[in-house]
Amino acid sequence: MSSQITLIKAIRAGQLAAVRAALDAGAPVELDDGNGDPGLPMGIACFMGFADIVRELAQRGARINVDDNSQPTSPLSMAVRGKRTEVVRTLLELGAELPPGMETGLNENEIMIACWKAQRDGHAKKDELDPATLPQVEEIEMTSCIGTDTMVLEADALRLAREMR
Q1: C-beta separation of 106 from 114 below 8 A
Q2: Where are the beta strands (DSSP E) in 37-87?
Q3: What pTM was computed for the model?
Q4: pLDDT value at residue 147
Q5: What are phi and psi of 32, to 5 degrees?
Q6: Among 17-26, 60-69, 132-141, which is the least confidently predicted range?
Q7: CA 28 to chain centre
Q8: Which domains, from first to last, does the chain contain?
Q9: Is 122 left (phi over 0), alpha (psi -120 to 50) or beta?
Q10: CB atoms within 10 A of CB 140
C-alpha cells in the first residue's frame, strides 16, 4: 500500500501515531484532492475533528491558510462545515486568517484568545505583527484556583486582547 493511502487511512481513523509513521515513511504532507487543489490531508483532519493531527500536519509543513479561507476546501471552512470548534480554535492558534463574517462556532472572546496565542507563538503574519510593539504579558500557571479571584485576571486578559486588535 502506498504511503499516501496509508496517510489518508490513518487520518480518517484519527490515529496520530500512524499519521506520524506514514509521514516519516515519506508520505507527502500536501496531497491534491480530486480537483487538483493541495491540502487533502489537512482538509480531512479538519473535517473529522482531529486537532492533534492538524497540529502534526502543520508542524510538518501543511498549509493552514489558502488564498481565500472562505473557500469551501480551506482548512478553516472544512472545520466549520464539520462543526469542529476545537479544530477551528487550533487553526486560529496556528495562524489561520479568519475571513470577515465567517461563523466559526466560537464566541468573540474565544476567537480573541486564539488569535492572541497565534501572535504570542509567532504564527501570525509577520507584516501584521511587530514584536516590539506588543505588550509584555506575564503568564501565570496555577494548579488550583481555590480561593483565588480570577475575575480580575480574566478582565485584564480580555482588555489586553482587545487592545491588541
Answers
A1: yes
A2: none
A3: 0.76
A4: 62
A5: -75, 145
A6: 132-141
A7: 20
A8: 3-163 (1.25.40.20)
A9: left
A10: 9
End-to-end CA distance of the chain: 48
**DSSP one-letter code for 67:** S
- Written as nine digits, the cell of 2 is 502506498
Contact in structure between 116 and 164 (CB atoms under 8 Å): yes
149 to 113, 130, 155: CA distances (angstroms): 20, 33, 11
Report the DSSP beta bridge partners of residue 38: 32
Position 71: which residue type? Q
Question: Can you read off the three cell numbers belonging to residue 9?
Answer: 487511512
- Tell me the one-letter amino acid at 28: P
Sequence letter at residue 144: S
Least confident of 7-21, 82-96, 135-149: 135-149
Residue 9 has pLDDT above 80, yes or no: yes
